[in-house]
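Quick one, tokens below. Sequence please?
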């Protein structure tokens, strides 16, 4: 789809900023009211917890000794630059830009954590029958929603091309 003259990157950067602010606000609350390992049951399948993740998704490389902090920070910074470039190139592609903005807001939120604390603060804990999904946060939710929307956008693009 061609870039229209009325399309702007600013609404997408605004959405990314809202996601990042919501992420950092909720993490600040968790850091202020919970000690590491604390947990509050909210529903039979949902707890609010305080977990520190020094790794990536699902605690990948969490025990690697510290170098992973800078690796994942660097990946986040490179992803941020790439996403902003992509948003500048395609601001009129609404689903695609929405997806990128969600990923951008989440990536920046988690990079801020890594730079400030050396770990990512996770606090949403869903479980069922003794099984717990790995704890996550608002930034992770933004990244996941963005990834799902990117897949949907590609499926729709391919169908339109037929």
């Amino acid at each position: 789809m061609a870039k229209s003259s009325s399309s702007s990157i600013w609404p997408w950067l605004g959405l990314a900023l809202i996601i990042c602010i919501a992420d950092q606000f909720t993490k600040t609350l968790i850091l202020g009211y919970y000690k590491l390992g604390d947990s509050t049951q909210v529903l039979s399948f949902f707890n609010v917890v305080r977990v520190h993740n020094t790794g990536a998704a699902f605690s990948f490389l969490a025990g690697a000794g510290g170098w992973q902090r800078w690796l994942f920070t660097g990946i986040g910074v490179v992803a941020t630059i790439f996403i902003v470039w992509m948003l500048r190139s395609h601001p009129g592609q609404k689903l695609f830009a929405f997806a990128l903005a969600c990923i951008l807001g989440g990536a920046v939120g988690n990079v801020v954590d890594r730079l400030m604390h050396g770990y990512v603060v996770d606090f949403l804990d869903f479980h069922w029958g003794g099984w717990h999904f790995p704890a996550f946060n608002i930034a992770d939710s933004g990244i996941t929603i963005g990834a799902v929307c990117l897949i949907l956008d590609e499926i729709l693009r391919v169908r339109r091309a037929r």
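The first helix runs from residue 10 to 33. The chain has one domain: 10-161.
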